[in-house]
Amino acid sequence: MTTDTPQATLITQAAPIAVVTHGGRAKCLQRLVRLDLPVPRTVALSFDAVHAIAAGEMVDLDAILSEFPEDAILCVRPSSEDPDWGGPGAVLNIGMNDARFVSLSDTLGKEAASALYLRFVQAYAVHVARLDPDVFEDVEDGGPDALSEVLHAYEAEAEEPFPQNRGEQLAAVLRSMARAWEGTTARLLREAKGAPADAGLGLIVQEMALGLGQGECGSGVMQLANSQTGEPQVTGRYLSQSQGRDALGGGVEAMFLAQDDRGRSLQDEAPEAFADLSRHAALMRARLREEMQVEFVIENNQVHILDGVRIQRSARAAVKIAVRLAEDGVIPAEEALMRVDAHALNELLHRQVAPDATRDVLGRGIAASPGAARGKLVFTAAEAQASAARGEPCILARRETSPEDVRGMHAAVGVVTEKGGMTSHAAVIGRGLGLPCIVGVSSLRFNMRRKQLIAPDGRVVSAGTQVTLDGSTGEILLGEPEMLEAAQDDAFQTMMAWADEARDIGIRANADTPEDAITARKFDAQGIGLCRTEHMFFEPGRLTVMREMIFADTSEGRAAVLARLLPMQRDDFRELFRIMGGLPVCIRLFDPPLHEFLPTTTTGQRELAEALGLPISDVTRRVEEMGEYNPMLGLRGVRLGVTVPEIYDMQARAIFEASLEASSTEPEIMIPLVSAKREVELVKARIDAVAAAVRAERGQDFSYRLGVMVETPRAALRADEIAQSTEFMSFGTNDLTQMTYGLSRDDAGRFMSDYVQKGVFPEDPFHRLDVDGVGELLQLGVQRGREGRPDVVLSICGEHGGNPESIAFCRMVGFDYVSCSPFRVPVARLAAAQLAI
Ligand code: PEP
Ligand code: MG
């Protein structure tokens, strides 16, 4: 065997042990040795050595054994690079044989000696000799004849006596553990957790602290923080006369550690050992700079430390632990920021289904807006409103949502749609409202007429049934699993404040309503980066006025109807300016195709005919005339601004008047869907004229900033000339992704999972920015925009603005800020800080 690392190394303070050569456990044990903690003598085998053993070579066993006393009982434990990659189970009590059984019976007592030997024979038979587990695992532990029964069974099954030589036993254990690691199942399992194909395994040979015998003996684990909350709390389990992880097994009467837990505690039973252990645990926290779970054995009142692993933790505990470590001076604040997964913050911002709750999964879709919600199933927006009025939480199920469902969405606690993808209407509104939302649930059949959801297994769920949506996993669950509440506690606020100090890219929120704006403020967004004004036209009372406007034949007629909308819009904007308290507010002019506002059903058309005093045939004809084959590529955005300019005139006036009345900072006005410089010039000329008129009427001077949305590939390509007429450009990556791929954002949900599964897309490009394609257009747009106007302010306001990987790209290409749904603002703030550190 040729290797640069020694095959087997006694772990001392100075031994050459590294995670990449010997694994995490070996490295951790070395750290514990350096802290002078009472760690049993340990030899570490390198990845190379274990690999060679699996291939049929054997390390120098005599050299290993010479490191231990002749009669030491040993154990072998795995040490992989990352503990999550798993590894074969530990084998304890190597060296037990007939002679040791006799001698230990004298010193520890027969019962303890028998338990030690029995445990080893059982493990050896099943995991090393690979004999039938049924024969060995059902033996009644500790029964007086158990040991001899098992030894006989071994001899019968293996057709040879149980090996008595310690070296032979150790060799067989090492070989079987090395081979188990190389097996196909183990490899596939760890690769699924991100391990590379050639991930190595180290092995630890350690002298046993037995945990059985005279005086207080036993084993257990201790940690100094609660895994769910992160609060300081001594927790763990200890079991007298036990080994390994026995104390954690089900059905055993383990003790608690500290007195303040209910029931018997180690602190009561063995106060000195408890005090030693607590000191060791505190030292490990301080010096390993992490909350650790300490694995220990007590042998005749003496504490031995076997291992320390980072404690498992929920997202809220991760924040609390990181902040406490920094506040205690154990780690710097910047490191605390790096220790929390930005994605996981979502768990703190929303209610969650408790991790250990039982889930009865009815169907699955795209997890479009995180958090969990439960309520009675309803199938129309009107039912949702009625349910809310009765004070009954409800889940709104629709095939897909349209602007007319928005009020129902406000009334519901969660939304589920059969169709749609990450940027479909339900998804965008859901995220904006912080409302759990699942879209593209093609596995369930939505029978809207009968008001039923039909699961693939034939279960039928009708309106009124209690269901739970898990918008973080995309699962629709039957019933009411246990929930965890949102937790924006002090630790969260502290972490966010540190993040703001560290980051170097701005974060604004996409906010359309006063509620959105309040959320944006609550999460300390630096302003509104996108206010989609069209939602304001779906308010009750306004839709009819809007429809009258659409039906007006002349420019004057349109202007007259719009004059009725003006005060309403002015109120909307004044409220937003007021809530934002002087922070920048960027308002996007009307964007959607007009026909979205027209009634599609005969009843709706009849109602409109009545309201307008027109024959229904006129209404139907007009609706038909306005139909487009491809509305998302049709008369919408700036094209409306150019052809029906009165709408933008009214909106600009409402913005200016509101801004004056609210004494806000200069408003930002944004033109959607541009693709040519001339479009901007035409709209700019009219808005300038409106500004001049308002200045004259009000006798007050003011300025405003004009910008465009870059949402068409042409706008990105021609950004240099477009930038000359604008002060800012905000990249709308929802439409830009749609147009770059030629992929409908409202229909992609149907085949997205196939595309991702088959590896066509690494991930849904509406969720994670396609850096290769759409990203190249962004990069070109940024570069050309700055060429056209060096001080142009650049940002992104598509849904990608809240995605940590996309933020990394935006920062790299030089955006000034990102704007995302209000509930994603904290995630964006932390992700941006991590990028800057
Ligand atoms: C976009 O297209 O990225 C965007 C922000 O606008 P909307 O989602 O309203 O089309
Ligand atoms: Mg858009």
Automatic annotation (TrEMBL):
SUPFAM superfamilies under this entry?
Glutathione synthetase ATP-binding domain-like (SSF56059), Phosphoenolpyruvate/pyruvate domain (SSF51621), Phosphohistidine domain (SSF52009)
Q: Which UniProt keywords apply?
A: Kinase, Magnesium, Metal-binding, Pyruvate, Transferase
- Residues at which Mg(2+) binds: E711, D735
The broad enzyme category this protein falls into is: transferase
The record lists substrate as bound by R532, R588, E711, G732, T733, N734, D735
| Cofactor(s) this protein requires | Mg(2+)
- InterPro entries documented for this protein: PEP-util_enz_mobile_dom, PEP_util_C, PEP_util_CS, Phosphohistidine_dom_sf, Pyruvate_phosphate_dikinase, Pyrv/PenolPyrv_kinase-like_dom, Pyrv_kinase-like_dom_sf
Q: Name one Pfam family in it.
A: PEP-utilizers
Which positions are catalytic residues?
H425, C797
What are the PEP-utilising enzyme mobile domain coordinates in residue numbering? 392-474
PEP-utilising enzyme C-terminal domain location is 488-835
Give the EC number: 2.7.9.1
Gene Ontology molecular function terms on file: kinase activity; metal ion binding; pyruvate, phosphate dikinase activity
Q: What does this protein do?
A: Catalyzes the reversible phosphorylation of pyruvate and phosphate.
Matching PANTHER family: PHOSPHOENOLPYRUVATE DIKINASE-RELATED, PYRUVATE, PHOSPHATE DIKINASE 1, CHLOROPLASTIC
Family per UniProt? Belongs to the PEP-utilizing enzyme family.
Write down what this protein is called. Answer: Pyruvate, phosphate dikinase
Species assigned in the record: Tritonibacter multivorans
